Amino acid sequence: MTMTVAQTKSKVAATNAANGDVRIKSLITLIDTLTVLVAEENVELAKGLPASRLKQVNEKNRLAEIFEQTVAACSVGTTSLNVRDRILREQLMERILKLRIAMDENLVRLRAAIEASNRRIEAVMQAIREQIAVVSPYGASGRVAAGGAVSSATSRSA
Predict the structure, then answer these.
(1) Of 41, 61, 133, 151, which has the fewest beta carbons less than 10 angstroms from its beta carbon?
(2) How far apart are CA 151 and CA 137, in angstroms?
């Protein structure tokens, strides 16, 4: 049984659509996983944990890189995400919106965590400066401070 050109084109189109659907479903799974990781990170950041101590960072970065590569491939035309199935297209758009909301919150929380880390670092540095000022025999000019000189001479017996 031989297929006509029209039947062959129809079968190729159906295969391409099926491959596109698989690609879209895979992308939706990636977005869902990334959204969950970002949401978990947001919860941790809301507790006040420093960003550097979060367990989600490496996996989030890995998945975000895959997502970026997919988006970049679509924008240069090497990959197409044309979705014929309306429901699948709506699911994709819904997931992208959820990811965007989670990422917006993540950005705000990461900025707050960075500011908090900077305040902690500044507080530690200030405490160190104060401690040095109390025990240092030198003034701000680098000369021995008046009245607070510490002797570093050694005694020699002749």
Answers:
(1) 151
(2) 9
